[in-house]
Design goal:
Layout (H helix, E strand, L loop, with lengths): L17 E5 L3 H13 L3 E5 L2 H10 L4 E5 L7 H11 L4 E5 L4 H9 L4 E4 L4 H15 L8 E3 L2 E4 L4 E4 L2 E2 L4 H12 L4 E2 L1 H9 L7 H14 L9 E4 L3 E4 L5 H10 L33
Parallel strand pairs: 1-2, 1-3, 3-4, 4-5
Antiparallel strand pairs: 6-7, 7-8, 8-9, 10-12, 11-12
Length: about 280
């Protein structure tokens, strides 16, 4: 018999957030759990992937701290299966120094990662930052721009009326862009404004830009909404819809107009691939 997937409702009701810590190292799990308990969280623990999925299925956490290297089923697969059931926030722990592994974790739906060895206090700050983002403002206002609409209270984003499947950070990043169109932001500024961090690995921003583009752009390889700005970062522009887009394409923009994209574009306000992203991704 299949069990229901019920939320604890603790964080939404103003109670202590419930965090599931998944790590096969008892010492690491104990230290992390201790710091989270002192920070006011309730904590559950699991030592492997199947146990983590079972605990999350019967007692839904508000956030999961998940080790990448687990016996039997690695953290990437656990994250994928958790995300398939419910968009629970995930912070991934990894002992690997390879950036590709960290990026892969983010692309599988993790909201953040911390590399071992790590400061437990830093981890708690990351947990608190993610949890703050899961609690909507008391009276958030919906926003609509071009083909995109977003309702913060319902945590719902749509494109041309079709719901978008976004992770926590993707939703927050899109909300920020919709409220601040037309201005270029560096990755450092986006990390501070969207993630709430004063420091961190900027590839986190790059990966989320790439993931968001894949979900809101007609052609992520030639983005029209989230533009890469040479030497700066990213700028969001509202996409025209239907007839408007046809009219713009029909008149044709010359190479001297602002907002031109491509390798040959130069000058203030021009955009093109590669700039502002440290070379991590051609279009991110």
């Amino acid at each position: 018999m299949r069990q229901s997937y019920e939320s604890t409702g603790a964080a939404d009701a103003g109670g202590p957030p419930h965090v599931l810590v998944v790590d096969d190292d008892p010492t690491v799990a104990e230290v992390v759990a201790g710091y989270l308990l002192r920070a006011g969280c309730t904590v559950d623990r699991a030592g492997d992937g199947p146990s983590a999925l079972a605990r999350a299925h019967t007692h839904r956490p508000d956030l999961v701290v998940l080790d990448l290297m687990l016996p039997g089923m690695d953290g990437l697969e656990v994250c994928r299966r958790m995300r398939a059931r419910n968009p629970v926030p995930v912070i991934m722990l990894t002992a690997r120094g390879d950036e590709d592994d960290r990026i892969l974790g983010l692309e599988r739906g993790a909201d953040d990662y911390v590399t071992k060895p790590f400061s437990p206090r830093e981890l708690v700050l990351r947990v608190e930052s993610v949890l703050r983002r899961t609690r909507p403002d008391p009276a958030p206002d919906p926003v609509r721009l071009g083909r995109l609409a977003l309702d913060p209270a319902a945590r719902l984003a749509t494109r041309d009326g079709t719901p978008l499947s976004l992770t926590l950070r993707e939703f927050d990043l899109l909300a920020f862009f919709l409220r601040h169109p037309g201005r270029a932001y560096s990755r450092e500024e986006l990390m501070r404004e969207v993630w709430g961090w004063e420091f961190g690995d900027l590839s986190t921003v790059t990966v989320h830009i790439r993931r968001l583009r894949a979900k809101i752009e007609d052609d992520p390889a030639a983005p029209r909404a989230i533009r890469t700005v040479w030497g700066v970062g990213y700028r969001f522009e509202a996409e025209e819809t239907g007839e408007e887009a046809g009219e713009v394409d029909g008149t044709g923009g010359g190479p001297g107009e602002a907002g031109v994209t491509g390798p040959g574009a130069t000058g203030p306000g021009m955009t093109g691939p590669g700039e502002g992203d440290g070379g991590a991704d051609r279009h991110a």
